[in-house]
Amino acid sequence: MEQAQPPRRGTSAYAARRTAWILVALAFVSINLRPAITTIAGTMGQLQAGFGLDAHLLPLLGALPVLAFGVSAPCGPWLARRLGTGRAVAAALLTLAAALLVRVLVPGLLLPGTFLAGASIMTASVLVPQIVKANRGTGWWTGLCTMGFGLGAALGAGLVQPLQQGLGGSLAWALAVWAVPALLGAALIHRTGQPAGRPDGTGETETGGPTSGAGLQKTTTAGGATGETGTIPLRKQRTAWAVTAFFGLQAMLYFAITSWLAVFLVSKGQTVADAAGLLAWFSVAGLPASLLAPVLAGRRAVLKVMAPGLGLLVAAALIGVLTAPVALQFLMVGVLGIVQSAGFGLGMALVVIRSTGPQSAGSLSAMSQGLGFALASLGPLGAGFLHEWSGGWDVPFWALAAEAVLLAVAGFLAVRGPAVSVEAVETEHRGEPAAVGR
What we know:
Blueprint: H1 12-31, H2 35-42, H3 47-51, H4 58-72, H5 75-83, H6 85-105, H7 110-125, H8 128-134, H9 139-166, H10 171-176, H11 179-189, E1 203-204, E2 210-211, E3 218-220, E4 226-230, H12 238-267, H13 272-285, H14 287-297, H15 300-323, H16 329-353, H17 358-376, H18 378-390, H19 394-414, E5 425-427
Antiparallel strand pairs: 1-2, 3-4, 4-5
Helix pairs in contact: 1-9, 1-11, 2-9, 4-7, 4-17, 5-6, 5-7, 6-7, 6-11, 8-16, 8-17, 9-14, 9-16, 12-13, 12-16, 12-17, 12-18, 12-19, 13-16, 14-16, 15-16, 15-19, 18-19
Protein name: CP family cyanate transporter-like MFS transporter
InterPro entries: MFS, MFS_Cyanate_Porter, MFS_trans_sf
Keywords: Membrane, Transmembrane, Transmembrane helix
């Protein structure tokens, strides 16, 4: 009698289990990539007394994570080439857990610990689209991740005060406890970053040849001729710049809005408590949009309208918040939250949709998020300067609306033209380069 054979790795049951595991791991990773920031924002008024931080350093503390985002974006692809994508994300989350602990438990390390936390977050964040692309994830995958970002931000802001009360009033431990989910995320994502059967991190090109990230390799053309392959730098690919501009502009709008919306609402007659509640509503209202936008973007016809259209909707929502009476602010802030979160979801989806393979997605993610967040750091500063210069809120809001129009232009350009590719591109002996990303 023949012995029963164990199920092979290629069976549908194995594939389904592996897919479910990767989705859970990605969701858990995404949720971990915002609480380090929003917990500090939610306790900003207590940091002076709790950690002896000079009041003049509070704005610097708020800007450090965004600054770290821009500086550390190239670390993700670099680490992935050496460890594999899943292990690189796990390493970033372990570093994040360490940063969350030392910044509040070791005297004098609040500022450098926050910078390290931001760098760890960006290292993991830029690799999420690469994992999605490597596993041929759909728009639902990207939507799940973007919703995880928003959910993590809301959990960090909403739970830090109850945690402090539950931990005997200790602010340090209420902030340090977020290292625990970071450790769990590292355990879940370990070894899940590569497609099944490719533990070495290599993948398959669209023509079926293996790529390992090397700059050149041998290929065979349809006619049997052998040629070399090369790459076109990202800086010379216009679609890469359009995607980067879209991501940077939507992030710039987000940070400007979240920094000043509550202050604006108080100036319109809201109480401090109501303004804080509306700021939280801004995030919560956008959660479904951050999930659905990448799904809808998977339809080419929808994407061509959505990419420029969202910028125009953000501009209209900003003017609506500026001009609406107090009684309508709940509605208008909710609309602004929906379209703004949809913009973030689309920004993440464009990295996956407009790249040709996992390596291209990782490189485009590093470029768009690195330069994008560097640009985003100017949002709160610019809006604050315009408010001080003009003595009111009309000029800042109209300037942000004009920026949203530029977002529409960037979206229009991002969905047209060739896809972004840094994978090896076939070149025949006669010297004619193959088309990139067609």
